[in-house]
Amino acid sequence: MPLPDDGSLPAWKSLRVRGLLATLALLVYLSAAALYIAGERKVIFDSVQALEELSQHEKALALTESAVSGALLDVNELASGPEATTTGPNELRLYMESCAKLFADLEPFDAGYVRLQRTIERSYAALVAQPVRANWLDLREALKRAADDFEIRRARLAEAREGLNARYRRHYDAVTFESLTLAGVGLLVFGALAAWFFTRLARDIRQLEQHAREIVRGQRGTALPVRRDDELGHLMRSVNRMSAELDERDRELLLEGERRSHQDKMLAVGALAAGVAHEVNNPLAVINGIAQAMRADPAAATPERLVEGADLILAQAQRAAQAARQLAEAATPQSAERNWVDVNGLIQHTLRLVAIDKRYRRLRLQFTPDPTLPAVRSSAGALQHVLMMLLGLAADALASGHATAPDGGGPVLEVGAHLENDGLSVQLLFPTALDFSRGEVQRTVLLARATVEPLRGQLAFGQAEHQRQRIKLALPADDGGGES
After folding, report:
1. Are 462 and 470 in contact (CB under 8 A)?
2. 8-12, 189-193, 393-397, 398-402, range with greatest mean pLDDT
3. Does some domain include residue 416?
4. What's the average model confidence in pLDDT over 135-161?
5. Which of 19, 116, 126, 166 has the most CB atoms in a 10 Å sphere around its CB?
6. At residue 65, does pLDDT exceed 80?
């Protein structure tokens, strides 16, 4: 999906929104898991409540059964004695009241206890009305039936308690297992998603960092593949666009450099033509004058005059030949391929070439070769082009600054080369600062940087001692790239 013109992202594609959604999903999962566990815990709570109620039931049953058993013993004793027909039931009144109270405590647990209580109360009421042996026996049977019923109920309550205990343990183990399972599944799923997300994010960031380093080194041929649609993907697309724009800018700089190089060559050709006219026409004029003098007065051509004229002609011919050799050497094109380059020789060759330009005639170019300099593996043509551009910057700055030497002569432009770290550096020193606000200076600096960047060279501009401007070109001794 293409991005809007303003470069903004849809909200649902934002890393922040996705992080909020992931947090919300985690909260929903935790809430659902908590609700499920709470439901399971309610079952455990119900089991505990049932066990507590059963315990209260058993306790009340035990008390009632104890009271009924005591009453049954007394009734058996009284009903079996000879005084059963004469003894009144008042001695059982406390037992009956206690049993009635205890039966009332059992009534909330089971309505069947009411029937037992009513049977005992009817038998006791009959006994109170007529304390005869038959009523004693009837009360004894009622109490015995109640005691037998209590025993059966106690056994049922014991079985129910065992069932509730087993149910409680099953649910407790199930809740423990489900809690651990839900926690493990949540940790595994969200941890795996987080690990996948951050691994992919870290990989894309490393790729972006590597691509940015390649762009800085000038390797901009391949676009970075973009498989994201968030802020990082937006940034990767921006880097690709920047790389394409830099490539286009490099092509423009290359074309501008070729245009400027052609212009400089044309200026050098014009200067060479002027040099040829100056260095060759003067000897020819002298030779022509000697020949005309000898032709105008043949009688004066004594042997001594002929020898003197011949010496002058030979001297002027040698002068013309030397000028031709210097001009041919200065105009020799440098190879554009990378090879071992003698920096001292390249600087001298470049200085001889630019010295013919009118801009440098009022300057004093100073260069002392350093015999300890090693050769560098580079492009002689590119280095010569850069040196000519830097010398042009210095010459224009000196011309606009009207600088003069301390001795009153023309301004001095010092060129030096020396070893530095794992390579060497070429420095230009002159007494006038560069005006970097000028568009021409900015374009020349950009062209120079674009030219030395593929050679792993570096340009630096700064101030040296005595308030002089310094331009420094650093070159590696071996660019490690081999011949191209």
Report:
1. yes
2. 189-193
3. yes
4. 89
5. 116
6. yes
At 31 the pLDDT is 92
The count of domains in the chain is: 2
Nearest to 268, CA basis, from 208, 335, 183, 331: 331
Which residues 6+ apart lie within 8 Å of 373 measured at CB?
Answer: 343, 344, 417, 418, 419, 424
Is the pTM of the predicted complex or chain greater than 0.85?
no
- Note whether residue 328 is domain-resident: no
Query: Within a domain: residue 198?
Result: yes
Domain harbouring 445, CATH code: 3.30.565.10
Structure tokens at 196: 């996948």
Residue 246 lies in a domain: no
Range of the domain at 345: 338-484
